[in-house]
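Cont'd.
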Amino acid sequence: MHYQLYYWPTIQGRGEYVRLALEEAGAGYTDVARRGHGMGAMSKMLEVEKGTPPFAPPFLKAGKLVIGQTANILLYLGSRHGLAPKAEAGKLWVHQLQLTISDLVLEVHDTHHPLGPSLYYEDQKAPAKKRTEEFWDSRVPKYLGYFEDLLAANGGSYITGRRLTYVDLSLFQIVEGLRYAFPKRMKAFEMEIPGLVGLRDRIAARPNIKAYLASDRRIAFNEDGIFRRYKALDG
Amino acid sequence: MHYQLYYWPTIQGRGEYVRLALEEAGAGYTDVARRGHGMGAMSKMLEVEKGTPPFAPPFLKAGKLVIGQTANILLYLGSRHGLAPKAEAGKLWVHQLQLTISDLVLEVHDTHHPLGPSLYYEDQKAPAKKRTEEFWDSRVPKYLGYFEDLLAANGGSYITGRRLTYVDLSLFQIVEGLRYAFPKRMKAFEMEIPGLVGLRDRIAARPNIKAYLASDRRIAFNEDGIFRRYKALDG
């Protein structure tokens, strides 16, 4: 099956969790909006007329299916490409972890957009600073502490045990993103999460991921995405 | 199967989407933390030692399974209790809609907590006011407009067509919650969403839901939940 991924063409954003899964799986896909006329095609898919229009990108076209919501796309891809257990209990558990990562990603976004997604960062710098303090004081330790403990409790290799899942790929992206957006804060925090840092290194060294990261299919981090480097927010 | 639902005992919150599904299905369940010693039992389940500890309530115990994340719990319950299609495509579609509702619920929470969940509302009143303006100017029309259009495109009875799903129950809760938290704003907005208001009425009239809403199992809205009535935020 050759997939069509629909996502904003100039950012990693939420689409990146899907790209990493497709790349690790060696799946064939077209990153539609990065091609000519791709943005128009994406807009057309979002119109509510009939069928199953997504609310927002990313969404994946898989044959006749159109699947929206990042974690839902990974739920679909996971068992098809060996990135999640096939049995229901394991599938639900891995999906649950991914939904917790979705919550974290939203909180990352809120560090620079506490007053909402429709206003510019420049119009909410002071609240962004406050929200970021709270994020690093309380939320990062809670989320990453949870995943660090899980990793240790399950043997230290991958988050659910001895087999890689799409959650491990997403945790790689979380570590990379926090390093990009908050280099000073993250440097100080990394000693709290040696397991996750090791996981990040193992994921980065996997052949398909390594090739992807070195390719122009990997969009660079920038200040339009979820993880943004604003000096004022980095301590 | 008799379920154990674990959620905060004094609020509707995210647990309410699960309660509504269990009630509509006529499923047997214990709302654990509302019983004596229930809070202690819930805390114990959140400890990361082994197995599949949830990150946060709500979570559902179903035999040996422990399932966390609201939308994931509904994914599990949906096909078992006739509240979602059994076939994969329909299941993913309904789940996708529920995940979009989860995003909306988070934005509702952010109206009174734009600087993050660890600070009190009283310490973020001015940013809350700004965030709420943006929520009503831009986000509510986008989310509810999407669901209103979907409902119309699919015949007007239920969000995915002629059969009730857990998404319809959740949309009932969204309308109820917005009416509670923002009575003035919602009153003015309801003319934009006649379909959803009609859906709300049909859900409220279903025998199991009607009995539930009249029982003491339904916790009243209050200012510790997701939907909070703060006069300063209501226009």
